[in-house]
Structures are given as structure tokens and as C-alpha cells.
Structure to design on (564 residues):
């Protein structure tokens, strides 16, 4: 796909009014590379271990590039692999311009980059913007004295008597302020105390962090996933947040993050970051937790000049397999004006097969969910292991928990270990991930749920992914077509057209445990023909079906092409 794309590259120079020489790669119809790409999130600790220390690494990722290529992946997002004390498993960065020795070296990164690029796979890095590790040289300087050069790079404030400056609580439990006895002030951390928030109002912080992105662009990365963008800025007046009824899972009072999340200043930084991204033909993906589409809309920017790809987590938060709920959420994000970004799960969200599985038909449901998010208008970001139907492997005893939020919040909050377990490659010990002791245990299901076994089984979840991804890459309507909802009052079957000029693809998803019959009249959409030719289905049957009476087995999928 990458090579095909290069053939279509147009150079649009002098595009913006500042006459800043910009180079944008777009296809003949104005699509950017990331609109046609399939992204795949890799949690490096858990993907593939090359040196048997039980922890995945960059050489391990490199050894699986051919697998990713054959699956149909165009870009990999690697969650943080920078030097880090690993308090939050890499989201506490102590040096933004290096690789943690447990994952390899910069030379390994360069090799990975070259090998990926040979295969047309781009690399997206994780940019942890909101905070650093408390072991970062910047923070070590900052906390050394009140007059330190970098004191103002973080958020230091006096307390109120013997209490913290205000009532803000950390999303990981406890006050968001930690007392520093040496310098007699509190520092602010939205996450753990080992993750002090940077002071983005300080121009020196802004510049240093922007330089980090340039440094990686020079190394060849194709963009960033921006971590925790919602919380870059805080109210300088440090007003108390409104307290809401009840307590959170850590036992802290619930509060509305009125003064420490989603401040308007975030958008100024995003616009600036976007300019640098555009100079590098790069994409910015946002970890954007939004309560509704109007909030999501803001992240695209008023003039489409902020994030190209803010993730729609509202889609991942649809909490049951419901045609009505998914239809509503898809329509909402589709009308937001930007390019939708769909994720089913990630390293912070319970795996989708657990959320939607009924315990009896999980394989069918995994294929159903794949057929949903891989056929929508927008870019999917897969999570490693989703393509084989990996399930959570949650800890059952507190002493086994690795993720600190699981230790603090046990038993209400078991942490995120369950969705971060090693990739299941084959049925050898530890699922072929390591010959050492894996950092998190592999569930017994690996004996059948693994890449090697599923490659041999044409009816596997993995084969469904491979076929759908291949289809998505070559079918114009799936790549660029509009989203048109069909049969909108059907509460069991979600159906839509992806319509592109004279062609269209019909997607029919039975989200119920019962057989269903559906009938389509595509006349209003300008498609008079009553037959569809099958592109993908999880049911048996012929290559042509009648659209006036389509019978669907429980949780089954039908995808077919219609034409005028
Ligand atoms: C983001 C990451 C999460 C991490 C947090 C703090 O939410 O996805 O894993 O714990 O940021 O950096
Ligand atoms: Ca290793």
C-alpha cells in the first residue's frame, strides 16, 4: 500500500498563508496516508522477547515485522520504550531521546525503523507530554532547590497551612499534590507522584518538548500518539474542583475536573505541534477522553488544524453488544466533521472479547467486532492480540498485581495487567513469547488462541482479520466511501453502506444471539439492484445473496458489494 501510495504523491507547496514551505503527501483525491493506513498498537514489554529476560524488546518487534506486514498493518504505534524507572511501565519517561536498555538501544531502534520502512510500515512513537518521571534530569534539577534553573519547569506551590494547595485528586488515587520536605513546597501530578506534571506555561518546557518531536522526526518516525493531552494545563488560580457525590474506586471523593483538564490552552499547543507534524508529513493521534462528540470535535481544531486522529473512546465505551448503541455512536462521530478513529481496546481498556463476548460465542463475536471497526469510515487502531481473539488474563490475588493502580485500588480496581499479557504466538511454553519467565503470566487459552494455530485454521479469528484487512486495502468504497446507516430501527442487526460514486459495500452485522432476517431497499441510495456479491461472510452460502431476504445466523456477518 505504501509503494502504491508513493506513485500518487503530489507535492502541495506554499499551502498555508504563512508561505511556510510545507510538503504534504496526498493521493489524487486528497487523502492523506494515515487515512488509508491500518494502525496497530504494540505494548513493547509484551510483544516479543528476543533475549529471554521475560520482557519484550525492539529486536523482538523487528522479528515480527513480516507477520505484521502479512496481517495488513501499515503503521505501528509503540507505547513508551524510552528510559524509565517503569513505575507506570514506561509512561514515566526519564529521557525522551533514548531507548531503555531493557528494550534495546538506539541502534536497535534505527534498525527496526529501516526494516519497517522496507516493508512499508511506519512507526509512531508515544509522546508522554503531560509529565516526566521524577527521575528525569529536569525534575531532579527542579526539586533540588527553589532557585534551581528548572524549578519552574514543573508545578510547585505552597500548601494551605498543612494541607495541599487545593482539592485536586490524582486519577491514580490520593491527592494530586505531593509534599517535598527539602524545598518546603508541593508539586502537582495528575498521575502517580513519580510522574510530576510539566509546566506547559513555561516557554522553555514548550521548546524542549517540541525539540523532542523534531529529534524523532529526524530519525524517521511518522508521527506521535499524544499521551494524556487532556491534562496539559491547569487553572493558574488553582481553584478547587467541584465535588460530586460518591467516591471513586480509590476511595477519594468524586470530582469534576473543571480546573485541571481540557483547558483551552491545550489547543494552542496542539496547533503548534500540528505545524511541526505537517512539516514532517506526520500524523498526530490523540489519547482524547471525551464525553461527547462536541468535545471530540474540538480536538480536530476549528480549522482542522489540530489532531488529525483524535481517538474516539466513546466507541470503545459502548458497554454492550447493541446495534442501537453502536449505530448512535458511529453516526455521532461520523458527523463530527473530522476523520473518525476507531479503537476497540488498548493497554488501558479491558480487551474487547471480554467486554462483548458471551462466553459461548466469543469467536463469532470477535469476528463480528472486527467486521465492524474494520469496515467503518475512518482509521482503525488495532491492539496487539486482538487479531487472534486474546482475552484478558486478570490477576486473581493482590500480590500478583504489577500495575500500581491495581495494588492501590484492589479489589475494585484490579489494574491493567489483564489486557497487557504477552502476545500468544504459538502453543509452545509461554506462547512462544519468551524462553524465560514472562513478566506477566500467559493464560492457558494460549494453547488454541495463538498465531501459529490460527494460521492453520481458515475459520479462525486471525483469518477473518487477514481477509477483512486485505479487503479494506483494496476496496475503494471501504477506503473512501461515505457511511450511510440502513434499517435504523432494527435493534438486532446493524447495517450500513459504504458508498463511493457508483459502487458501494453493504455491511450487515447480527449483534444478537438469535437468527435474524433482514431486507434491504437500496433504491433511496440509488442502488436498484437487489443482489449483492459476497466479499466477506462468517456464514456458509453462495457468492450472491438476495437483499430482499437475507437470513443471518446469531452474531454473523455479511459484507457484499452492490453496484448500480
Ligand atoms: C495514559 C496511558 C496510560 C498511562 C497514563 C499516564 O493514559 O495510556 O497507560 O498510565 O497515560 O501516563
Ligand atoms: Ca527482552
Amino acid at each position: 500500500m505504501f509503494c502504491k501510495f508513493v506513485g500518487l504523491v503530489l507535492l502541495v507547496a506554499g499551502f498555508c498563508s504563512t508561505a511556510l514551505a510545507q510538503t504534504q503527501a496526498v493521493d489524487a483525491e486528497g487523502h492523506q496516508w494515515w487515512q488509508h493506513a491500518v494502525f496497530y498498537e504494540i505494548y513493547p514489554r509484551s510483544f516479543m522477547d528476543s533475549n529471554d529476560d521475560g520482557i519484550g524488546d525492539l529486536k523482538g518487534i523487528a522479528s515480527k515485522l513480516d507477520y505484521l506486514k502479512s496481517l495488513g498493518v501499515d503503521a505501528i504505534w509503540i507505547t513508551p520504550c524510552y528510559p524509565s524507572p517503569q513505575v507506570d511501565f514506561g509512561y514515566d519517561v526519564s529521557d525522551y531521546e533514548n531507548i531503555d536498555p531493557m528494550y534495546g538501544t538506539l541502534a536497535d531502534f534505527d534498525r527496526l525503523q529501516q526494516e519497517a520502512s522496507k516493508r512499508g510500515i511506519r512507526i509512531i512513537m508515544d509522546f508522554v507530554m503531560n509529565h516526566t518521571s521524577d527521575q528525569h534530569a529536569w525534575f531532579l534539577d527542579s526539586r533540588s532547590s527553589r532557585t534551581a534553573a528548572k524549578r519552574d519547569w514543573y508545578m510547585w506551590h505552597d500548601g494551605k497551612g498543612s494541607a495541599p494547595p487545593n482539592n485536586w485528586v490524582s486519577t491514580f488515587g490520593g491527592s494530586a499534590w505531593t509534599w517535598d520536605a527539602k524545598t518546603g513546597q508541593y508539586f502537582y501530578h495528575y498521575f502517580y507522584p513519580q510522574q510530576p506534571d510539566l509546566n506547559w506555561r513555561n516557554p522553555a518546557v514548550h521548546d524542549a518538548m517540541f525539540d523532542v518531536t523534531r529529534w524523532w522526526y529526524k530519525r524517521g518516525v511518522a508521527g506521535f500518539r499524544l499521551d494524556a493531552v487532556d491534562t496539559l494545563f491547569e487553572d493558574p488560580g488553582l481553584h478547587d474542583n467541584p465535588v460530586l457525590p460518591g467516591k471513586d474506586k480509590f476511595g477519594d471523593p468524586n470530582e469534576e475536573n473543571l480546573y485541571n483538564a481540557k483547558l483551552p490552552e491545550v489547543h494552542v499547543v496542539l496547533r503548534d505541534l500540528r505545524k511541526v507534524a505537517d512539516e514532517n508529513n506526520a500524523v498526530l493521534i490523540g489519547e482524547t477522553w471525551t464525553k461527547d462528540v462536541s468535545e471530540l470535535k474540538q480536538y480536530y481544531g476549528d480549522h482542522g488544524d489540530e489532531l488529525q486522529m483524535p481517538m474516539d473512546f466513546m466507541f470503545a465505551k459502548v458497554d454492550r453488544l447493541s446495534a442501537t448503541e453502536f449505530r448512535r455512536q458511529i453516526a455521532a462521530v461520523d458527523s463530527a466533521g473530522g476523520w473518525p478513529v476507531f479503537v476497540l481496546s488498548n493497554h488501558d481498556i479491558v480487551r474487547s472479547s471480554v467486554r462483548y463476548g458471551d462466553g459461548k460465542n466469543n469467536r463469532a463475536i470477535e469476528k463480528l467486532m472486527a467486521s465492524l471497526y474494520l469496515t467503518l469510515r475512518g482509521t482503525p487502531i488495532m491492539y496487539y492480540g486482538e487479531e487472534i481473539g486474546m482475552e484478558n488474563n486478570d490477576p486473581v490475588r493482590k500480590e500478583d498485581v504489577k500495575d500500581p493502580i491495581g495494588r492501590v485500588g484492589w479489589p475494585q480496581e484490579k489494574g491493567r495487567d489483564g489486557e497487557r499479557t504477552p502476545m500468544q504466538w504459538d502453543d509452545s511454553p509461554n506462547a512462544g513469547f519468551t524462553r524465560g519467565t514472562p513478566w506477566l503470566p500467559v493464560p492457558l487459552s494460549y494453547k488454541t488462541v495463538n498465531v501459529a494455530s490460527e494460521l492453520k485454521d481458515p475459520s479462525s479469528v486471525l483469518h477473518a482479520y487477514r481477509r477483512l484487512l486485505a479487503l479494506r486495502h483494496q476496496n475503494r468504497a471501504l477506503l473512501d466511501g461515505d457511511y450511510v446507516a440502513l434499517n435504523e430501527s432494527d435493534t438486532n442487526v446493524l447495517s450500513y453502506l459504504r458508498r463511493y460514486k457508483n459502487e458501494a459495500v453493504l455491511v450487515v452485522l447480527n449483534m444478537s444471539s438469535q437468527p435474524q432476517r433482514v431486507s434491504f431497499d437500496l433504491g433511496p441510495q440509488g442502488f436498484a439492484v437487489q443482489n449483492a456479491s459476497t466479499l466477506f461472510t462468517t456464514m456458509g452460502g453462495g457468492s450472491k445473496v438476495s437483499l430482499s431476504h437475507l437470513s443471518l445466523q446469531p452474531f454473523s456477518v455479511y459484507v457484499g458489494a452492490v453496484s448500480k
